[in-house]
C-alpha cells in the first residue's frame, strides 16, 4: 500500500506546537511579530502573502503587512526593510519573492537583519546552514525534513536525489540531507537542467525530492519500487475549471503512486509545511531576540 502523505495534518501538528510556544512568549509579554512585504502585482504572490498573514492570526503571532507599488524605486523597499529591522515589535521579516526586475534580489536579502531573516536566505544564515549550525532553516526544505520524519522515512545511509538547485529549495534541501544527525546522513545527488540522464539518477534513489517547476516531469517509469517521493512543484496548467487552470506538481502522481512507498500530493503535500515552518521560524526569532526559552515542535 502506498502512503499518501497528508501535509495538512503534519502542518497542523507543527502549527499547534508553535501556537503553544507563542502562548509561552505572550505570557512573558513578548508577542512574536512577522512583517511581510509585497512589492509585486502578481496574483500568486498576493495569495501566498495573505496565507502567511492568516496563519499568523490563527496562531497569535502579530502580523504586519507592507505593500509597495511595483514601479517604486528599490530605495523605497530598502527603507521599509530598514524601518522593520529597527522595530522591536517585528521579530521576523519576509519580503515576498520575486521582486521587480529593477530591484536587485541579493541586495534585498542582504538588507534584512540576519536575526530577523525568517526565510533563512541572508548569506550569514546560508553560511550557518552549510556549516551545520543553522539559525533559521529555509521553510520548504525544513518542512520536507519534518514530512520525512513524521512519515518514518529514515534518511541515514539512503540515496537521495534532489531535482532542482535553486537557492530557496534545491540547494538548502541538499545541504540539510548531507548534514550529520537526524534527518541527514543521506548520500545526496543534486540534479538540474543540465543533468545528462535524470531518469537514471531518480531510478537509483531511495528518496526523490522534485523541485524543478516543470509540470509532471517525473513519472512512474523514472522511479523504482519503494521510493519515497516528495513533490515540491506547484504549477498552474490550463484546465476546464472555474479558474481556467489547475495546480499540478513536478511528479505525475498517478503513475508515480504505483511505484512509491510514500508520496506527497499537490496540493496538500509540501505547501502547508512551508507556512508552518515560517511560523516556527518566527517563534524562534522572537525567542532568540527576547532570550525567552521555548520548546519548538
Ligand atoms: P527555480 O525555477 O528557481 O529552480 C528550478 C530548478 O529546477 C533549477 O535548478 C533548474 O535547473 C531545475 N530544472 C528545471 N527544469 C529541469 C529539468 N527538465 N530537469 C532537471 N532539472 C530541471 O524553482 P524553485 O526552486 O523556486 O521552485 C521549484 C518548484 O517548487 C516550483 O514549481 C515552485 O512553484 C515550487 N515551490 C513550492 C513551494 C511549496 O511550498 N510547496 C515553495 C517553493 C517553491 P537549472 O538550475 O539548471 O536552471
UniProtKB/TrEMBL annotation:
NADP(+) binds at residues 164-166, 234. Pfam families: THF_DHG_CYH, THF_DHG_CYH_C. CDD domains: NAD_bind_m-THF_DH_Cyclohyd (cd01080). Keywords: Amino-acid biosynthesis, Histidine biosynthesis, Hydrolase, Methionine biosynthesis, Multifunctional enzyme, NADP, One-carbon metabolism, Oxidoreductase, Purine biosynthesis. Its EC number is 1.5.1.5, 3.5.4.9. Residues 5-119 form the Tetrahydrofolate dehydrogenase/cyclohydrolase catalytic domain. It catalyses: (6R)-5,10-methylene-5,6,7,8-tetrahydrofolate + NADP(+) = (6R)-5,10-methenyltetrahydrofolate + NADPH; (6R)-5,10-methenyltetrahydrofolate + H2O = (6R)-10-formyltetrahydrofolate + H(+). Residues 138-288 form the Tetrahydrofolate dehydrogenase/cyclohydrolase NAD(P)-binding domain. One of its GO terms (cellular component) is cytosol. Pathway: One-carbon metabolism; tetrahydrofolate interconversion. One of its GO terms (molecular function) is methenyltetrahydrofolate cyclohydrolase activity. It comes from the Archaea. InterPro entries: Aminoacid_DH-like_N_sf, NAD(P)-bd_dom_sf, THF_DH/CycHdrlase, THF_DH/CycHdrlase_cat_dom, THF_DH/CycHdrlase_NAD-bd_dom. Catalyzes the oxidation of 5,10-methylenetetrahydrofolate to 5,10-methenyltetrahydrofolate and then the hydrolysis of 5,10-methenyltetrahydrofolate to 10-formyltetrahydrofolate. PANTHER family: C-1-TETRAHYDROFOLATE SYNTHASE, CYTOPLASMIC, C-1-TETRAHYDROFOLATE SYNTHASE, CYTOPLASMIC-RELATED. Belongs to the tetrahydrofolate dehydrogenase/cyclohydrolase family. Homodimer. NCBIfam families: PRK14167.1. This is Bifunctional protein FolD.
